[in-house]
Amino acid sequence: MRAPRSRWLAFALTLPAALSLSACGMTSSTEVGVRTSLFGILEKRGEAQVYEPGGVYFFLPVVNHWTTLPISQQNLLMNANPEEGDRPVPDEITFKTKDGNNVHIDVNLMWRIDPKKAAYLVFHVGRSVDEIKERVVRPVARSVIRDLFNEITSEEYYHVTVKNQVAQKAKEALARSFEPYGIVVDMLQVQQHRFDAEYQGAINAQKQAEADVQTLVEQQKNMVAQKKSELEAKRAQWNQQLEDALGAAGRLRNEADAYYQTKTNEAKAVIAVAQAEAEGVRKEAEALGKLGGDAYVKMQVAQMLSKKRILIVPGSNVSTMDVNTMVDFLLGRRAGAAHSPPRIRTGPDQGARRPARCRRARPARPPRAARGPREPPPRDRAIRVPPRRGAPPTSPRPPDRSTMSG
């Protein structure tokens, strides 16, 4: 019974002394704690243990070392502006491009510590985030970024797609380089880039010239498009005029064809009539050349004279002679008028005495027997009848050959 009581008594006496000599370590929600054994009394020397965020931990202060590391995201800004970068001097990354020009770029690297490897960082790199950044993150980042970005030309820096592709390659290379240290790379931002002043001026002049050329090209394209539009409008107008002219020409052609066809038909009709008349004349001429042609001519003359009424009025008497009856007598058309002379019609003033007028004395004619037989008058001589007294003078008419011929 005495032995157990002595043990409990010793424990009770040493507990207050141990508590008075112990240390307390605390971690926030974004930190991890790392306790490292210094002398190897209770543990192996250099052995480290990681404690979770957001806790309070007790340990012996003399034989142990307590360190906290943030596990939140950190930024390494390497910029030419001292007010924005991590250092009070220009800290941009400078290197040569593939074609030999100096280029300066501003870079922002976002990184964080892997909690599982916090003890490794404390034992091999540093006990604070600043030591880890200056000893590992900054030199490795600048070296990897410089080695990858000097593979592109100066012109390719102005192509955002090319620059983003190289930045992605640099991020992957940094992740492989930081993996043994327990550092995780979240993002790599390549911001602005600058060349030397002389080369930058030449590039700016070239870019301005290219912009001016592009402006002129756009203006030329707009002018070409405008001229094409005007040309299409003129072409449509010309096509409309051409269609109108073709339509008018077609109408005129149709009218001309119709007129030509009409006149052709009329000419054919005239030719047909003329041919029929010529055929009739030819047949009539053949009939006249045959036996009985004189009788046929006399019959034609008689038929023509039978349709006309001819009066012969003497100059000294108002008596009229019926020429139709005389023609019938001459041609023998009337059976009972073979030996009867033509009748002479007497006007209403036949019995009245007309005043005597002076007549010119005519020479005495020889007897008929002495004159010889009477000759018939020529056929083409017209019978002239003296006008009546008091009648207006009339111009002589040419003889009607249709009535006097034969």
Brief sketch in words of this structure:
The protein has 406 residues and is of the alpha+beta class.
Mean model confidence by pLDDT: 76
- The gyration radius over C-alpha positions equals 75 Å
According to DSSP, the number of beta strands is: 12
Stated plainly, the CATH topology of the domain at 74-195 is called: Tetrahydropterin Synthase, Chain A
C-alpha geometry: rod-shaped
Which spans of ≥5 residues are poorly predicted at pLDDT below 50?
A: 334-339, 344-359, 378-385, 398-406
Q: Characterize the biggest β-sheet.
A: 4 strands, antiparallel
Q: Number of DSSP helices?
A: 9
Q: Give the termini separation.
A: 203 Å
Q: Which sequence of SSEs, written as H and E, runs from N to C?
A: HEEEEEEEEHHHEHHEEHEHH
- The proportion of residues in beta strands is 15-25%
Helix content: 40-55%
Helix/strand/pairing class, anyone?
A: alpha+beta
Provide the CATH superfamily of the domain at 74-195.
Band 7 domain
At the first level of CATH, what is the class of the domain at 74-195? Alpha Beta
CATH architecture label of the domain at 74-195? 2-Layer Sandwich
Structure write-up:
With 406 residues, this protein is an alpha+beta fold. The chain has 9 helices and 12 strands. Among the domains are: 50 residues, no CATH class; 122 residues, Band 7 domain (Tetrahydropterin Synthase, Chain A, 2-Layer Sandwich), CATH 3.30.479; 55 residues, no CATH class. 47% of the residues lie in helices and 17% in strands. The strands form 4 sheets. Strands 6, 7, 8 and 9 form a 4-stranded antiparallel sheet that branches. Strands 3-2-5 form a 3-stranded antiparallel sheet, with helices on one face. A hairpin with a 7-residue loop joins β10 and β11. α3 packs across α4 and α6 runs antiparallel to α7. It starts with a helix and ends with a helix.
